[in-house]
Amino acid sequence: MNIRKVRDTTEIMFVITLFFLYTICTMLLSMMVADTYRKGADRSERNYNMRTSVLYLTEKVRQTDAAEGISVRQTSQGDALVLGMSAEGERYETWIYVEDGYLCEVLLSKGTDIAPGIGQKIMPLSSLNLKLGQEGLLQICVTDQTGETYTGKVLLERAGRRNAV
């Protein structure tokens, strides 16, 4: 009888040990999957922000009337895309620039100086580099908070290449 009791106890301990091993493996697998998902989601969001910022700038350039012009100017934190426009006989400028880690946009009367903190935050972005070429090509290079860059180009033919400054 004593041998049977030891055998039963051993079987019970074996089943309990297997259960705990299964539980530990399941928890470890769940944590690895969650970590992989989080990293993938973060990367996807960064890529989305970078592509969207370049597409946003490209569309803004394409929407600009040829007579109003496009220029690249400097702010305290880097390059700014300045798009001219007229409304009700007044001339305005839309400034798109990076400030405090965000792509920002503000509409100002032509000739008004840009002040810190007045722009509407659009999306997170570390830096914006713009190059306006003589051939009418605007090169846009954005950098996110991790240092990754994404570039795009837009031809200014329709958007006022003659008036590009």
Quick recap:
The chain is α+β, with helices and mostly antiparallel strands. It has one helix at residues 2-63, and strands spanning 70-75, 78-87, 90-99, 102-109, 120-124, 127-132, 137-143, 149-155.
Question: What does this entry look like structurally?
Answer:
The protein is built from one helix and eight strands. The chain is of the alpha+beta class. The protein has one domain. It has a five-stranded antiparallel β-sheet, with helices on one face. The longest helix has 62 residues. The C terminus is likely disordered.
Index terms:
165 residues; three-stranded antiparallel beta sheet; 8 strands; 1 helix; five-stranded antiparallel beta sheet; alpha+beta
Helices, strands, pairings?
Layout: H1 2-63, E1 70-75, E2 78-87, E3 90-99, E4 102-109, E5 120-124, E6 127-132, E7 137-143, E8 149-155
Antiparallel strand pairs: 1-2, 2-3, 3-4, 4-5, 6-7, 7-8
